[in-house]
Design a protein that fits this description.
Layout lengths: L1 E6 L10 H10 L2 E8 L2 H13 L3 E5 L11 H10 L5 E10 L7 H18 L3 E6 L2 H10 L7 E3 L6 H9 L2 E5 L9 H9 L5 E3 L21 H12 L3 H16 L4
Parallel strand pairs: 1-2, 2-3, 3-4, 4-5, 5-6, 6-7, 7-8
Helix pairs in contact: 8-9
Length: 256
């Protein structure tokens, strides 16, 4: 059994064939999926999917790229949704210095607010980090984010930084990039970080694993992530599936 711990089934890319995508996931033994909402439209869709399917859960938060668009009303709405029985975390939140839509200071302020919100509602945090590792770690430490813990989504950093995150009560989640031939850091992390701290994801429809790189990703392909981790650790893929599934159930407190 596998759990795709971070997927965007609420994306427009699935408007034509969402049910088929879900069925392919279930056929591949991807028995649970966690759908991430990160703005008004995607949060509404995530909640709707979680309500329609017993095996789908939702995460609600505001993406750093769009931080400039987030209002206090939006944050209050996210806080209200945190009480929903199918909402299992706050996010994805964090920092993204690759795109320049939202100024760094605006992103950082919203990041802090969502960490505090997660602490208030006692849910873990799903972290997005792109080209901002130093500031992400600093803010997590300053805000004492270890009190709720969280996950470093689609982790692409070093083994050393992963260990710092683990010390802060964070899980490390690996996605399609671990299968890329030139992905040195994710492969090192997969090999060196103990299974007890790892989860797997697709971030679909983005970041499809090899040999589907460049195409639309989907939850069924999370099995390829597990296979690559198993290869790097030189262990059976069933062991990776079992451990990462148990980790996800524990992390998200899934009633499985």
């Amino acid at each position: 059994m596998y759990i795709d711990t971070h997927v965007h089934l609420n994306a427009d890319q699935y408007d034509e064939d969402l049910q088929e995508v879900i069925e392919r996931a279930l056929e591949a033994n991807v028995n649970h999926m966690v759908v991430i909402g990160f703005d008004r439209k995607t949060i509404k869709r995530a909640i709707a999917l979680a309500e329609q399917h017993e095996f789908i859960y939702a995460v609600v938060g505001w993406h750093p790229v769009d931080a400039i668009d987030c209002t206090e009303e939006d944050l209050l709405w996210i806080e209200e949704l945190a009480a929903h029985p199918k909402v299992v975390a706050i996010g994805e939140t964090g920092l993204d210095y690759h795109w320049d839509k939202s100024p760094h200071d605006v992103q950082q302020e919203l990041f802090r607010k969502q960490i505090r919100l997660a602490q208030k509602v006692n849910l873990p945090i799903v972290i997005h980090n792109r080209d901002a590792t130093e500031d992400v770690i600093r803010i997590l430490q300053e805000e004492k984010a270890e009190t709720t813990g969280g996950v470093m989504h689609c982790y692409g950093g070093s083994v050393e930084t992963a260990k710092i995150c683990i010390e802060m009560n964070f899980m490390i989640s690996l996605g399609g990039p671990v299968t890329f031939k030139n992905a040195k850091k994710p492969k090192e992390v997969a090999a060196e970080i103990p299974l007890e701290y790892l989860m797997i994801e697709t971030d679909a429809p983005y970041l499809a694993p090899h040999p589907h790189r460049g195409k639309r990703n989907e939850p069924a392909l999370v099995t390829l992530v597990a296979e690559e981790i198993a290869r790097l650790k030189n262990i059976p893929v069933e062991e990776v599936g079992k451990a990462t599934t148990e980790n996800a159930i524990k992390f998200y407190k899934l009633p499985v």
